[in-house]
Amino acid sequence: MFLARVIGSIVSTQKVASMKGHKLLIVEPYRLDADTRASLVTTGRTFIAVDTLGSGEGDLVLVCQGSSARLTPETKTLPIDAVITGIVDSVHIEKKSVFDRTKEA
Amino acid sequence: MFLARVIGSIVSTQKVASMKGHKLLIVEPYRLDADTRASLVTTGRTFIAVDTLGSGEGDLVLVCQGSSARLTPETKTLPIDAVITGIVDSVHIEKKSVFDRTKEA
Amino acid sequence: MFLARVIGSIVSTQKVASMKGHKLLIVEPYRLDADTRASLVTTGRTFIAVDTLGSGEGDLVLVCQGSSARLTPETKTLPIDAVITGIVDSVHIEKKSVFDRTKEA
Amino acid sequence: MFLARVIGSIVSTQKVASMKGHKLLIVEPYRLDADTRASLVTTGRTFIAVDTLGSGEGDLVLVCQGSSARLTPETKTLPIDAVITGIVDSVHIEKKSVFDRTKEA
Amino acid sequence: MFLARVIGSIVSTQKVASMKGHKLLIVEPYRLDADTRASLVTTGRTFIAVDTLGSGEGDLVLVCQGSSARLTPETKTLPIDAVITGIVDSVHIEKKSVFDRTKEA
C-alpha cells in the first residue's frame, strides 16, 4: 500500500455499468522526504482510487492497489485496481511525528 | 486507475482467438502538472487498453489495470491487462477545474 | 498492454517442467516518440514473453502482463507473467500512420 | 519480493472494517549499492505493509507484494497488497556479507 | 518475465511458517545495453525470488513475477511474488549471441 493525499475528484457519466454510484477520487502518492527525513512529500504521480470511507480533499489516506482493491464489501465485483482503505490519523517515522491529522489546517 | 488521453488505435489480424472483435485503443496516461497544479499533462508513456464504451480519439478516459480489467461483462475471459472503464466529463483538483469535456475543441 | 518489438530469444534447458516446449521471446517495449509524436521508439527496457502466435524477430507485437497472461488456451497453467496476444499490422496515432507492417524492411 | 527497512508506522481509525487490529508499518525498499556493491542502500521509496511477525523499527524485512500478500493465515481476506513475510538475519552478495542483524547498533 | 543474474542469498529465521525450507535468492534484473545492443547489463535493481531449480550465484535466470509465481508445484500456496522459472543457457538478440552460459568464467 502507499500513502497518498486526496487532491480532487472526477465525474464520468459514460462508464461501465457496475461503476455507477462509486466515488472516484484523485490521489497523489506521498513518500518520505529523502533529504530531511522529517516530512512527507509528493511523488508527483496521479492516481484514481475508489472511496468507500467518506474521504475528502486534503485527507492523507492509505491506498491498496491491484486485485486486493476488490477485497472490501463495496468493491467485490468492480473493475477497479485501487481503493482507499483508511484515513490516516498520524504517521511516525524514526521516532518523529511526520504527520498529525489534528494539526492540519 | 489512471487518467489517460485516447491518442490512437492499432490493428492486429493475427491474434489470440478470444481477442477478435475487441477494440484496442492507444492511451497516454496523464498526471497533474507538478509546476502549475492547474492542468493535466502527459506522462510520456504509451499503453494499449480495450474499449467497450465507444471511446474515441481525444477523449480523456479512466483506465483500470491488472486482473480487474477482466471485471466487465465484455472482458471476463480475455487475456488483457487494461480496460477503459469511463469517459471523463470533468476533473477538479484543489477546487479548480483542470478538465471540462464540454470546453475541449 | 503495451506495444513491443521482438528482438530475440532465449534458450533454457533447466526449467520448471510445465514451461517445456513454450517459446520464450525477448521483447523491447515501445512508446510514442515524445518529441515528434510521429513514430514509435524503444523505452530501453527488456522483457521476456511467451509466444503462441508464431511471432518472429522484428515483429511489433501486443504484450499482456500479469495474471491475464494465463488467459490464453496454451498458457492457462504456466508460471508466466507476459504473453504475446497479437502481431500488429498498423498503428495510427493522432490521424497519422506511425507503423505499417507492410512497409517494414 | 524486495528487501526493506522498517522505518515507522501509521495510525488510522477510520478504515475498512476488516483492517481493524492489523499492524501497518512503513517500509523503505533497499537495493544493492551500485557503486561499491558492498552494502544495501535505500531506494528512496515509501510503502506500507502489514506485519504479522512482530517486526520493529530498524528491522530489515522481506516484503511480498500483490495478491500473494493475502497468502498468509492472518491476511487471507484483507484488502492489502503488501505483507512482511520474514525478518532478515543476514544478506550475502557476491561472497560478501552486506547485512548482519547481529552487528546492527 | 525478466532476465536476472543471481547475485546472493538471504537468511531469515523469523518468517511466515509456510516459507520455511524455501531458498531465497537475490536477483539483479538485466536489460539489453542500449548503446552497444550487444550485451546484457544490470538495471541496478535488487529483487528476491524463490528458487526451486538449484540456481546458484552467477547464473542468469528467468524470473516470473506476480500471482503467477505461485504456478509451480513447489510454490502454490506461498506468499511470494517472484520465482525463478529457468536457468538460461543462451540469449540471442538481433542475430548476435549476447549471452552463452558455456563461455562464462
From TrEMBL, chains A, B, C, D, E:
The protein, known as: Carbon dioxide concentrating mechanism protein CcmL
Organism: Allorhodopirellula heiligendammensis
A cellular-component GO term for this protein: bacterial microcompartment
Listed PANTHER family: BACTERIAL MICROCOMPARTMENT SHELL VERTEX PROTEIN EUTN, ETHANOLAMINE UTILIZATION PROTEIN EUTN
InterPro entries registered for this protein in UniProt: EutN_CcmL, EutN_CcmL_sf
Keyword presence, Disulfide bond: no
Entry-linked PROSITE patterns: BMV
Subcellular location: Bacterial microcompartment
Keywords for the protein's UniProt record, in alphabetical order: Bacterial microcompartment
Pfam annotation, one family: EutN_CcmL
